[in-house]
Amino acid sequence: MLHCSYGIARVAGTVSRPLPLFHLSHHTHNATPLLPDSPSSPPRRHLSVFGPEKSVAAPDFKNRWAMAVPAFVTHLCIGAPYAWSAMSGPLSKDLGFVCSAADDWSMTAATFPMSILFAFHGVSAALAGKWQMKVGQRASIAAAAACFGGGFLLSALGVLTHNIYLVYAGYGVLGGIGLGLSYTPPIQALIEWFPDKKGLASGLTIMGFGSGALLFAPAANALMSKFSTLPTYLGSAIQTVTESGRLFAEVGGNMVEVVYANAADLAKLSYTGLQEGYYVVGSGDTGAAVTLATIGVGYTLAMMASAFALKRPHPSYKVRGFFGLVSLGCARATRFLTRRYARAVSRYYGTVGGRSEATYDCWIR
Q: Is this structure's pTM higher than 0.85?
């Protein structure tokens, strides 16, 4: 059963007759919540800079296209997992450098963090939805920045100490939580700025998510080339000993583990100055740890800046010529209000002068 109470309609600055309770809004919500300055809802003050009211734009801010930038940047950062293959290869040869050594991680183990990340993406997004609505998109994206960037830093520590479980916990668990917390808030905020172009708003944001690999892969390769250290080359013809599946050679009176790289192995690498032959295991550095740490810091700063730049529209914001939805108190009674119908209602309840449009401030009980 549909229950409607009655409110007062204000048309062109005049008070007209009582009107069944519905809201003609530029937003896309089925129900309009009480405004902070409503007599029935006294304003609440949040001292934190991450409070939900801090992420609301000023009443005179109308440049909605500017809000597409932080939304796009946020998704550009969290779209990095699609290019994790740029890291899995070097991680599987972190000790051997030119090819995998006996203690190097397998390719399966090196690619598994991506699977963990997307699993925690879905779980965190589902569990944190109510919390995100409560704290607002600034706190959500800021928390996501700490988790996502912190995941890269913990993974860098795992690579540095050669602990695969730290990589799983960092990039997989923390990174997945950060991805889940930051995926929907930018989309929701931008859709509120573009109630008349919802598809465009969501497309602009998700375009950043799909483009994340275009940034991460070349950045990772460039950083690893910069921070890498080539391993010690022993030559192509030396005496070696095999023990427990490992290859050893005598260097300076000591037996050290070595690997042999052929032309096919070297062709897979982007480094120059390497020759076919034997290399000392652990004498080189792929630069993967420093690369993950550098990218993690960069993503944290970019997402944190986006969290402060992205704002929701002020309650007084409206798009000219767009009337939105009429909510009659239940979802099934909601339908799109056409311009012709709006003008008919305006003529019935009062004359609209000039090019101004009627505004009906009514409440759903």
A: no
